[in-house]
Amino acid sequence: MKTTGKRSFKNLLIAYAVPIMFIGLSIFTIPLSGFSPEYLVQEMVIRLARNSFLVLALLIPIIAGMGLNFGMVLGAMAGQIGLIFITDWNIVGIPGMALAMIISIPISIFLGWIAGNILNRAKGREMVTSYILGFFINGIYQFIVLYMMGKAIPIGNPALVLSRGYGIRNAINLEGIRQSLDNLISLNIGKVQIPVATFILISAFCFFIIWFRKTKLGQDMRAVGQDMEVAEAAGIPVNKTRIISMIISTVLAGFGQIIFLQNIGTLNTYNSHDQTGMYSIAALLIGGATVSHATIPNIFLGVVLFHLMFVTSPMAGKNLIGSAMLGEYFRLFISYGIIAISLVLYAWRRHKEKERARMNLRGNS
Amino acid sequence: MGTEKSKDKTEKNVLLRCEHVGKSFFENRVLNDINFELREGEILGLVGENGAGKSTLMKILFGMSVIAQTGGYEGSVFVGEKPVKFNSPFEALEEGIGMVHQEFSLIPGFTATENILLNREITHYNFLVEAFGERLSTLNMPEMIERGGKALNTLGVDISPKMLIAEMPIGHKQFTEIAREIDRQNTKVIILDEPTAVLTETEAEILLSSLRKLAQKGIGIIFISHRLQEILEVADRIIVLRDGILVKEVEASEADVVKIAEWMVGRKMDTSVFEDKLEDKNAEVLLEVKNLWVDMPGETVRNVSFEVYKGEVLGIGGLAGQGKIGIPNGIMGLFPAGGTVKFRNTDVPLNNPRKVLNLGMAFVSEDRRGVGLLLEETLDWNISFTAMQVKEWYVKKYLGGLIKWRDDAAIKQLTSEYIKTFDIKCQGGHQLAQELSGGNQQKICLAKAFALKPELLFVSEPTRGIDVGAKKLVLDTIRRSNREFGMTVVMTSSELEELRSVCDRIMIVDEGKVAGILPATAPSTEFGLLMLGTSETHRREREIQNGKVKTK
To answer: Among the four B20, B101, B265, B414, which has the fewest Cβ within 10 Å?
Structure first.
């Protein structure tokens, strides 16, 4: 009994190695940064509202066994195209956001369908394929936004268009929808302001995921995710199911990017989507998720821990060594490093599990 | 019991009938004019050696796509009175034919219920179905669990329908798999391919009794097993395949283990080419293996002890998947292994191929294209590669060994020597290995091992996939190197006749253990019995001693 307890504790440590590491790190950086608790809580609430939806969009491809969807930047681009249009048409507030989402849906579905089809031809290498696919679609996005908009696609608002007459400016002011969702229902607890409406949307989405797992489609995705061949043999349309999961993920990433940008208030036309995938994936992994398994608590824990580090490390670096650059370097280093570590840990753990599964076939040991 | 069943059998409907079914894969005929029928509630035992055509027959019945892809089959199959020609397993399932495969097709992270009802889930309607289709209906888990439990109960096993597959012992997985076939409403025939191979004694007992229960419900069962005792115990009728021909169809009550083994092995021509069998009991022990286990997927060796005498050819035989191939692979360090191996009385370090090669052993792998050859390199390199790496032969050393260069002239000479002695059909040493035919590739593999001048040579499946003429040459070469150069050889092969023609002694491996070692001159039925029977009989005896089973 004691040994099994010990072992399960050890397994728990291994399973949550990454979040534990980050909690440990935060214990150092929080006091070093010198931020007040109120400030940190407020920051965390804002960042939870801002980022959770994007991270949630990663869940469904993981269920379907397609790993971490680096291709979610596709959805982010679709969302941004929606935002460019509503800014041009000057539709503000919640209707503006809703319209941006509606515009993004067909684009996301199309991009998700392309991604799904390509990933079906690259089974087992989904992550690297979707990562490179992100770069490729980024090229098309830039072509459309930089050359087509204002020429082939009419853009009326001169504030959006580059002085040469076509192409969208580098920065777009999203004044019309800035924090319109966050401030729709605002609640103050102490000094901390809580964007209730955004959280309602996020929790609605969490319930959607919980419900979705219980549908026939969700069950099929789980089956496909665990063993494509068995699923195929049982008559589940494997490729179609995988494409659907990519489409759902891309559409939701588009919504997520719109929610993200309404909070920020400005759209960096050519950069905003760049880090979306990387940061969301880093956050999810820090929350204790793996390539093949992720839960809703992983998301919230991950967002909090990742951004806690994000917020505190530059200040901690400045206070400690007198250079904020070190903290900046540190957080970039961490977010890439954590993805690498998680992937290696995952591969190592899989190997160990396989070995353990075969243990009873080995003699006298 | 058997006779009682056979009396009322004739009144029952025919579920499945094969008429003149035959199949050849390109030029290679594997099935010829098979005729049999399966009646309602009947258990049909199907036995045969490896390669006798059992799996091909089952693939035809279950509509596996490999059959259609290789040109279909001859003759006709009837389900009831209706002629059928399945193009995919789904069509077979539709007609009520279910199959339980040797490999599990279960999803490890799902519960028993979820696996049993995979893609046949019971669902609730909701309004989203109208918009997005059936797949958005929600699962009705309580009802599913009830149905899964019912299917498991039919089998008479105590498995919780909520248990995860990953947490199940291997036997329970097998039952879950069978439960899946039972749950299909229209299942009329279930084909079981070696279902007891992975089960423990008691689990096998439960399985057999649940098969009887299913048969009582009118389901027809085709039961393939190498364990003849089980076949005799559970089957009503037995059909024996040999070399693609149905050689015997018999009531179970009229057969016994020895008879079946004889039918299976047949009285093949004794092709013994070499009559000078070595039987020197006082010979020096060259290799001593004790309690060896090898974790080679599909060829697990559990506990093997044997000795190899200097100057002999020892054959290792046995059915596929019983572990015979795992033995050389384990000793040579290619798969995780444990136990003690002594070569010339020195301990052989396991899991370290380099050390083993240095000791003077060499290995011709059964995986010719994967392990055996550098396919995209020349024959020169292929033959000399291991010798260069291990012995540093055919290497010129400069500056006291600081710089090592390949000695191309020596390599060329070596290659042309082997091309001549082995009669390798090629354009010369510069040709790429992948351009050669299978038989010639095999000779290159042998040349590569011979170039090491080993004291002990392991040869694994040397004639697999090569034609008859090349086979004889390869076997001759092995034999000659043994007799003329005194190289001790341990040869693994699935073909008993081949072993009998080349070897002095033959060891039969069954279920990862040594079933017995016999001189090669022993009658083939005795080898057949070792392959199939002994471990089975031992098991039964043990059970009877332990009082688990009453003697009948």
So the answer is: B20
Contact B139 A222 (CB under 8 A): no
3-state SS record for A118-155: HHHCCCCCHHHHHHHHHHHHHHHHHHHHHHHECCCECC
Closest by alpha carbon to B531, among B544, B549, B513?
A: B513
> If you measure CA to CA, which chain B residue comes closest to A234?
B119
Whole-number CA gyration radius for chain A: 22
How many Å apart are CA B277 and CA B502, to the nearest integer?
9
CB B405 within 8 A of CB B423: no
Q: Do residue B107 and residue A216 have CB atoms under 8 angstroms apart? A: no
Domain count, chain A: 1
Delimit the CATH 3.40.50.300 region(s) of chain B.
1-86+187-266, 269-360+454-521
B64, B91, B115, B119, best to mutate vs chain A, most A CBs in 10 Å: B119
**CB-based contacts of A23, cutoff 8 Å, min separation 6:** A305
Q: What is the dihedral of CA B60, B63, B64, B68, to 10 degrees?
A: 80
Residue B214, pLDDT score:
87
Which tens digits make up the pLDDT trace of B87-130? 888 888 888 888 887 667 888 889 999 999 988 888 888 887 77
> Is the Cβ pair B119, A227 closer than 8 Å?
no
Both tokens of B340, joined, read 């003690």
Cβ–Cβ under 8 Å, residues B62 and B86? yes
Contact B107 A231 (CB under 8 A): yes
* Cβ separation B291–A364 shorter than 8 A: yes
Q: How confident is the model at residue B274 (pLDDT cuts 50, 70, 90)?
A: low
Give the percent of chain B with pLDDT over 70: 89
Residue A330 included in any domain: no
Of the residues A208, A230, A248, the best mutation for testing chain B's interface (the one with the most B CB atoms within 10 Å of its CB) is A230
Q: Residue A62: phi, psi to the nearest 5? A: -65, -40
Are B136 and A215 a contacting pair at CB < 8 A?
A: yes
Q: What angle do CA A38, A41, A45 make, to 5 degrees?
A: 140
Contacts of A227 in chain B (CB under 8 A): 107-108
- Cβ(B306)–Cβ(B360) below 8 Å: no
Confidence band (pLDDT; 50, 70, 90) for B550? very low
**Where is B245: in which H helix or E strand?**
strand B245-251
Residue A12 lies inside a defined structural domain of this protein: no
How deeply is B403 buried, as exposed, middle or buried, from its count of CB atoms within 10 A (0-12, 13-18, 19+)? exposed
CB pairs under 8 A between A and B: 76
Which H or E element spans position B128? helix B128-132
Are B90 and A235 within 8 A, CB to CB? yes
> What is the rounded CA–CA span in Å between residue A256 and residue A69?
14
Q: Does residue A301 form part of some domain?
A: no
Q: Rounded to whole angstroms, how far apart are CA atoms B453 and B343?
A: 16
Q: In A, what residues contact B, Cβ < 8 A?
A: 211, 214-217, 219-220, 222-223, 226-227, 229-231, 233-236, 358, 361-365
pLDDT digits (tens, 9 = 90+) for B434-468: 888 777 888 899 899 988 889 999 999 888 777 66
How far is Cα A12 from Cα A4, in angstroms, rounded to an integer? 12
Here the ipTM equals 0.81
Q: Report the CATH architecture of B269-360+454-521.
A: 3-Layer(aba) Sandwich (3.40)
Say how far apart CA B192 and CA A60 lie, in whole Å: 37
Residue A120 structural domain = 38-295
Residue A153 lies in a domain: yes
Q: Are B371 and B394 in contact (CB under 8 A)?
A: no
A123-132, A209-218, B380-389, B538-547: the lowest-pLDDT one: B538-547
